[in-house]
Amino acid sequence: MEKNNGYKLKIDPEICQGTAYCVRVAPDLFRVNQGATVDVIEPNPAPEYEEQILEAATLCPTRAITY
Ligand code: SF4
Q1: What distance lies between CA 16 and its chain's CA centroid?
Q2: How far does residue 64's CA lie from ligand 1's centre (Å)?
Q3: How far apart, in whole angstroms, are the C-alpha atoms of residue 13 and residue 1?
Q4: pTM, entire model
Q5: Among the CATH numbers 3.30.70.20, 3.40.50.1360, 1.10.10.410, 1.10.390.10, which is that of 10-66?
Q6: Ligand 1 proximity of 39 Cβ (cutoff 6 Å)
Q7: What is the pLDDT of residues 20-53, one digit of tens each?
Q8: Quick one: DSSP state of residue 58?
Q9: CB atoms < 10 A from the CB of 65, how many?
Q10: Which is deepest, 9, 24, 38, 62, by most CB within 10 Å?
Q11: pLDDT at 62 over 80
C-alpha cells in the first residue's frame, strides 16, 4: 500500500456546517473558527494521523473534508 504522507487536508467552508465532529476526532488537525466553521490546523499531517483523517472525513455529515 502506498504511504500516505502526501496529504492536502482541506475543508470546504461553503459546505462545512460547523458540527465539529472532525475537531472531536482529530483535535490536532482541525479547530473551530470564529465563523462557526472549522479551519485545518495542519494541512499536511504526518502519516500517523491517517486514521484520524479517515474517521473525520467519514463522520463529516456534509463531506466537506478532502485530503
Ligand atoms: S465534521 Fe464536517 S461539517 Fe462538521 S465541522 Fe468538520 S468539516 Fe465541518
Answers
A1: 11
A2: 6
A3: 31
A4: 0.89
A5: 3.30.70.20
A6: no
A7: 999 999 999 999 999 889 999 999 999 999 999 9
A8: H
A9: 25
A10: 38
A11: yes
Domain coordinates of the chain in residue numbers? 10-66
Q: Does residue 3 have a pLDDT over 90?
A: no
Q: Can you tell me the mean pLDDT for 2-30?
A: 90
The amino acid occupying position 5 is: N
- The helix (run of H) or strand (run of E) holding residue 37 is none
- Report which of residues 6 and 9 the model is more confident about: 9
Q: Lowest mean pLDDT: which of 3-7, 17-21, 24-28?
A: 3-7
Residue located nearest, by CA, to atom 1 of ligand 1:
60
* φ/ψ (deg, to 5) at 8: -130, 80
Q: Is the dihedral of CA 10, 15, 20, 24 positive or negative?
A: negative
